[in-house]
Amino acid sequence: MNFDTQVLFLFSALGAVNGLFLSIYFAFFTKQKAYSNYFLSALLFVLSIRIIKSVFFHFNPDLSQAFIQLGLSACLLIGPCLFLYTVSITRGIHMNHKMWYYHIIPFIIIISITWFLIPYKAYKSLWSPYLVRVIYLQWLIYIIISGFHLKDTFKKLFAKNKKLNDFEVLLVSVFIGVTIIWVAYFTSRYTSYIVGALSFSFVFYLLLLLGFFKRNKNSTFYEKGAKYTNKKIGAPKAASIANQLGILMNDKELYKSPDLKLSDVAQELQISPHLLSQFLNDNIGKGFSLFLNEYRIEAAEKMIGLKKHLTLEAIGQECGFKSNSTFYSAFKKIKGLTPAKFKRRLD
C-alpha cells in the first residue's frame, strides 16, 4: 500500500470509527437524555457500519461475504433512523410512542430473514443489483419523507428575516449529510466505490467543526441545542399537557420524588423533554425547577399546619427536598420567609 493509498484509507476509515465513538457518546454520555439523541446515536451507528464495510471492501475485495451483507443490511436502518430523528425534534415524538416500532422492528425482521434465507454469499447475483437497488430506494423514500417534515425549517433557512437556532442547524446538517452520502453511494457505479466513505468522513468532520465553532460561542450545540424550537404549541396540545401535568402533580404527587427530572416527567406525559420545557417556559412562564419547587412548598405549607408533630426537616424530605438547605432556600425564595418563621406565625 503506497503513501497515497494509506492517506485515502486513513481519512475514509477515521470518519467511520469516529462516527462509532460519537454514536456511543450520544447514547450514553450526553447530559440531557433526550430521545432525539438516541435516534441520532442509532443513525450514526448504522452509517458507520455501512462506511466501515465500504472502506474495507475497497481495499480488500476478498472481504468476508458476511461482513459485506452486514454493511448492506445496515442501509435498511439509515432511512428509518433519519426519519425518527427528524420527527422526534419537529413533532416531539417520544420513545414510548409506538411509531418507532413500526419503522425499526419490521426492517430488523427483514434483515434477520435475509441473513438466514438469502445470504449474500449464496445469492450474490440476487443481492447485486436487485436487492441493493431496493435498499437504496427505501433509503431515498425515507430521505424524502424526512425532508417533508423539515419543510418549515427549510423555509426558515431561506427567509431573510429568520434565523435557525443551533438545534435546527444540527438537524438540517444531518439531513443534508445523509442525503449527500446516499447520492455518493447511488452514483458510485459511475465514480468510485470509496466516494461514499469519503463523503461520510467529509460530512462528519464538517459537523464537528460546526459544533466546535458553535461551542466557542457559548453554545450547547450537541448537549442540548436550543431549549425548544420557535414553533408555538397549539392551544389544544397545551391544554392537554396542562391537564396531564396537573394529574401527575396533584393526584400522583410526582413532585415528592427527590430525584425527579424534567425527562422523567416528559416520559410520564409521553412527550419529548424539549416540548415540556417549551410548555413550561411559554405557557406557564417558569423553569422546571421553580415549577417543581412551588408544588413542594405548597405541600410543605399544608403539612406544617396539619402535622405539627413532624420536624421541619422531616416535612422537607416528605415533600421531595433532598436536604434541609435546599428546602429552606426554596421556601424563602417562594414565600419570602423561612419555614421556621412560617411555623411560628401559625402557632
CATH architecture of the largest domain: Up-down Bundle
Q: Any idea of the CATH topology of the largest domain?
A: Rhopdopsin 7-helix transmembrane proteins
**How many structural domains can be distinguished in the coordinates?**
2
How many individual β-strands? Answer: 0
Low-confidence stretches: 217-230
Structural class: mainly alpha
Tally of separate helices: 15
User: Which CATH C-level class of the largest domain is it?
Assistant: Mainly Alpha
Approximate strand percentage: under 5%
Question: How would you spell out the order of helices and strands?
Answer: HHHHHHHHHHHHHHH
Determine Rg (CA atoms, Å): 26 Å
Give the N-to-C terminal Cα separation.
Answer: 87 Å
Share of residues in helices: over 70%
Mean of pLDDT: 81
Biggest β-sheet description: none
Shape: elongated
Note the topology.
Blueprint (H helix, E strand, L loop, with lengths): L2 H26 L6 H25 L5 H26 L8 H19 L6 H26 L1 H8 L7 H21 L8 H21 L19 H17 L10 H8 L3 H12 L3 H19 L5 H7 L5 H12 L3 H8 L1
Outline the structure in words.
The protein is mainly α and 347 residues long. It is 73% helix and 0% strand. The protein is built from 15 helices and no strands. Residues 217-230 have low confidence and may be disordered. Helix 2 packs antiparallel against helix 3 and helix 12 packs across helix 13 (312-318). The chain folds into 2 domains: 3-215, Rhopdopsin 7-helix transmembrane proteins (Up-down Bundle), CATH 1.20.1070; 235-346, Arc Repressor Mutant, subunit A (Orthogonal Bundle). It is elongated.
